[in-house]
Amino acid sequence: MEIRPIRTEADYKAVLKEVSALVDSDPVSGTPEGDRLDVLATLVQAYEVRHLPISPPDPIEAIKFRMDQSGLTIKDLEPIIGKSNRVYEILNRRRPLTLAMIRRLHQSLGIPAEVLIAETTR
């Protein structure tokens, strides 16, 4: 089993192609193919952490995403943020989140506080 580090984008794409083929064949763990898949998946993960980091989401986009995922409406956010006009101002980026809002959003919706205190991207 010859395995090399992933150093370039071309290496990365080649390994992804091999991982995809291995996943399609669904190898049994402990077999040579299963071991190869485990090792290659670990290499891919290490490469992605180093070269393809995922930046944290924008706070407002995180709130909108949670609303969409949970089927929440503006009315549902009123106990957390304030009257509907305040909720609209927050979601339209006309007013910043306050510390109290951040705490309530974190507690009520489970959005990480680190995401909510980040600068908005727009």
Question: What does this entry look like structurally?
Answer:
With 122 residues, the protein is mainly α. The chain has two domains: 9-51; 59-116. The protein has seven helices and no strands. Helix 4 crosses helix 5. The longest helix has 20 residues, at 32-51. The mean pLDDT is 93. This is HTH-type transcriptional regulator/antitoxin HigA.
What are the secondary-structure elements, in order, as H or E?
A: HHHHHHH
Main structural class: mainly alpha
Number of domains: 2
The counted number of beta strands is 0
The whole-number mean of residue pLDDT values reads 93
Task: Sum up the overall morphology in one term.
Answer: elongated
Q: Could you list the spans in which at least 5 consecutive residues all have pLDDT below 50?
A: none
Q: Compute the gyration radius: what is it? A: 22 Å
Q: How many alpha or pi helices? A: 7
Note the beta-strand portion.
under 5%
How would you characterize the largest beta sheet? none
